[in-house]
Amino acid sequence: MDRLNRRRFLGFAGASGISLAAITGCVMPRSGADSPELNTSKPTVAPAVAAPTTPGVGPTAAPPPIADPRSSELALQALIEGNTRYVEQKLSHPNQSLNRLTEVAAGQKPFAAILGCADSRVPPEIVFDRGLGDLFVVRGAGNFADDVALGSLEFAVAVLGVSVIMVLGHERCGAVAAAVQGGPAIGHIAGLIHAIRPAVERTQGMEGDPVENAVNANVQIVVENLKNTGPILAEAVANGSLKIVGGRYDLDSGMVQIIA
């Protein structure tokens, strides 16, 4: 992609509880008036004890640097390999040192962008075993690409040189479940559900779990929309400098499956 877009984007840098309950999930009860009083006495400091280690679970050797971060194939491979380490609990925790902190303070060069759901159980940097400056992350409930998300992803591609975008959905997504369930919704949640309705409509009558079917369809629809969003993303896809894929995260196993 030519860099004319860089100049353009440099300025960018500077009523029903049913649907609501489906999105938020279970809420832990808060303690009431019987909560214990605060202890204002000086705490006793326990002696330091070395943290126990579990064979096969501790940090492994850092993964080798990506040979060509601008290669979409190698960038996607790095994501998949990181997720494999996460699933197998052979984490490397790369690029999380003080040196890395100092290095990226001067500027960022992420190799991938993730458009993911805001769900607290799906943090991309952990799921893909990456560190500071590796991933450009855009998150919102239902991993939907509104204008703000689109502008962010265009910035990642045109200015930062990201070569792969992954739309990351996940099983048992509350936003998708609310769209499947239907009915009125309070506040701006109604707009969110409306955005996911095309996935529900695409999967009506399909065999299997309606929520999981819609989760997959929602990812696929967003991927399709991104590929056809011009001029920046569509042009980058057409000239081969950008790959846009869709993934589904399994909440039980931690595995990311490419579905689009």
In helices, the fraction of residues equals: 40-55%
Backbone shape: globular
Total of DSSP H or I helical runs spanning 4+ residues: 10
Structural class: alpha/beta
Please describe the topology of this protein.
Blueprint: H1 4-13, H2 17-24, H3 72-87, H4 98-105, E1 112-116, H5 124-127, E2 135-139, H6 147-158, E3 164-170, H7 174-181, H8 189-202, H9 210-227, H10 232-238, E4 243-249, E5 256-258
Parallel strand pairs: 1-2, 1-3, 3-4
Antiparallel strand pairs: 4-5
Structure characterization notes:
The protein is of the alpha/beta class. It has a domain at 63-174 and 229-258: Carbonic anhydrase (Beta-carbonic Anhydrase, Chain A, 3-Layer(aba) Sandwich), CATH 3.40.1050. It is built from ten helices and five strands, in the order H-H-H-H-E-H-E-H-E-H-H-H-H-E-E.
List keywords for this structure.
260 residues; alpha/beta; Beta-carbonic Anhydrase, Chain A; globular
